[in-house]
Amino acid sequence: MLQANDEPDAGKVWATRQFAMRGAGKSSLYRHEVRHAAIEALVEAVERIVTRDEPRQRRGSVSPAVKGRARPLMTQDIRAIDWAADSTEKVVRKIRAGEGHPGVIDSIGDGNFHLFGAHPEGVPRGQAGEIIARRTGALCRATVDGAVWITHLKRQDTAAERHFKLPAADALALAGIDPGAPEVPIAPSLPANDTYREIAYTESGGVGYLRFEFYNGAMSTDQCMRLRETYTHARAQRHTKVIVLLGGEDYFSNGIHLNVIEAAQDPAAESWRNLGAIDDLVRDIVQTDSHLTISALGGDAGAGGVPFALAADYVVAREDAVLNPYYQHMGGLYGSEYWTYLLPRRVGPATTARITAAPFRPVGTRKAIRMGLIDAAFGADLHEFRGRTVQLAERLAHDGLYQPRLRDKRRRRTLDEREKPLQAYRDEELARCHACFFGPDRTYHEARGRFVYKLGA
To answer: Do 240 and 207 form a contact (C-beta atoms < 8 A)?
Structure first.
């Protein structure tokens, strides 16, 4: 924590923290380790200021363990991948070092693209640099000793054109480039730790765990449909008692996929399809009467991702997670995902009106618990959070109260349905959204374009 002065990042040091580096992208480190360290350092700095303690000097009094020093700007020629020489590990490290922004510029076909979302592939094959496979929008590119999956691309901007980040295969298609590689699917329940997949389903101790690692938490129509298909499979397993929705490491969900919508030939129609697909998924979770369900937010949730999480019977989050159940910044989008049922069921009508109206700031887990938005928060990091989530799920499955809980869940859902059918909430929400998508007011479409192209307000 630095004191501001005339030279950027050169002021006196009020507090420092260090952390071990995970094998993850830069943006993921910021959302977990850096966020946690920054909060601790901020608290220490405030305490030092309050007690009139002196800041540490940049040199001399700073702990010798602090390794920070001035570095030159990292340019794209430093980041560049040499496909004929770089190992899989080196390619992955380069792309992860530019994750979020700016990415690594590379040539594919006759276009230049920023590369994002690197995952190593354990089976070496193909000529280095060659695109050898596709999977759910990602591309697999051979290296000298293996291969790497690249999930997202952003075409390089020119003086005349701006571009935005898309699933890799979609970005190539929009640029008129055919990678000429086969689709290589993988079943969510197939054991495989050395390859890339967005959705995975495992079982242990009477509990089904459904992980969905969607880039930046955005859920396209296709992703919603595939996730719903896997959830249907999990729901059909009668030897399990609890289903845990794990989301991804960085995000649980941020609702519909605005970038994919923007790239569609008819963005209004794609908005409608995407919202319908996520609604179908949320409805299935709400109507599950064969299992208890848990939403486990290891990462943040925003917009439609919040009511999606609230569809489960229990909602828990990692201590540092942030929730933002707000749609209005997207051109007054009303939103769906049955939020007019799920939010009041959790926090009551008055709080629902407050947190869905402008202006509203994201909430941390402590406030979310006080509001009733979530049930509990625990775990200083993902490892601890996932471990305690497993303990919770297995306790719900085996503590002897499973059947009474399930009966109570069915009874409450029956009473809610009698008071107002679930379909009625959906119809009312979608009527408002239809006007946003297809009506004469273009505010939603303009706001989406500004968001996707990073143009600001």
So the answer is: yes
Angle (CA) 191-197-202 rounded to 5° is 40
Residue 397 amino acid letter: A
- Domains of the chain with bracketed CATH: 1-59 (no CATH), 76-174 (3.10.25.10), 199-450 (3.90.226.10)
Whole-angstrom CA distances from 197 to 156, 184, 213, 300 are: 26, 11, 8, 20
Q: Which of 364, 316, 416 is nearest to 36 (CA)?
A: 364
Amino acid in position 265 = Q
pLDDT computed for residue 67 by the predictor? 62
Q: Which of 152, 223, 163 is nearest to 188 (CA)?
A: 223
Phi first, then psi: give them for residue 201, nearest 5 degrees. Answer: -130, 130
* Total-model pTM: 0.94
Instruction: Tell me: cis bond preceding 102? Omega within 30 of 0 counts.
Output: yes
Query: What is the tens place of the pLDDT at every residue in 190-204?
Result: 876 789 999 999 999
Q: Please state, in angstroms and rounded to a whole number, the distance separating the CA atoms of residues 11 and 256.
A: 42
